[in-house]
Design a protein that fits this description.
Layout lengths: L2 E7 L3 H12 L5 E3 L2 E7 L2 E7 L6 E9 L2 H13 L4 E9 L2 E9 L5 E10 L49
Parallel strand pairs: 1-4, 5-8
Antiparallel strand pairs: 1-5, 2-3, 3-4, 6-7, 7-8
């Protein structure tokens, strides 16, 4: 069964946690110093907020699936619709290990399709390895023309001109 996913960038995590906890009548299922997530059942949504974005607002949308078959189905749909697809495969981000791919809608909004395999203690394991992926996520939403120069921050959470990202 699929779960709708929304990721928002916020400027004040504590204030936003208090607001969304009242709005959802539920406490987050995960809270970190820069991130919070609610796994709601009514409606069935994975709602996440973080302070990692360059500007506040919507970062990306998506679908979280329960198994690899559902993820393959979403990938096949994207390919059949002739959408540009960025297949990250196995990756770590947002305090989780996942298999995922990305598509971008005609308005430039990134859509993440992912199957969560487990939790990890860091936002992104690549951040500790010193790789380019460590800079991911504290930037604006991806755009078709946003290709990071070497050393620049990668676009967050989605494909940008075929450039893979490793986050969210």
């Amino acid at each position: 069964m699929k779960r709708f996913h929304v990721h928002m960038h916020v400027s004040d995590l504590s204030q936003s946690i208090a607001f969304y906890s009242r709005l959802f009548a539920a406490q987050p299922t995960r809270v970190e110093t820069d991130y919070a997530k609610w796994m709601l059942d009514d409606p069935r949504v994975n709602f996440a907020i973080s302070t990692r974005g360059a500007k506040t607002g919507l970062d990306h949308l998506g679908f979280q699936v329960d198994d690899a078959d559902e993820l393959a189905e979403l990938k096949a749909r994207a390919e059949a619709a002739d959408m540009a697809l960025l297949d990250e495969g196995a990756t770590t981000c947002c305090y989780a290990r996942s298999d995922k791919h990305w598509v971008t809608d005609p308005e430039g909004i990134a859509w993440e399709h992912f199957h969560t395999l487990g939790n990890i203690p860091l936002f992104n394991e690549a951040a500790t390895s010193g790789s380019a992926a460590a800079a991911c996520c504290p930037t604006d939403a991806p755009t078709a023309s946003a290709v990071p120069a070497p050393g620049d921050k990668a676009p967050c959470c989605g494909p940008a001109a075929g450039s893979p990202t490793k986050c969210c």
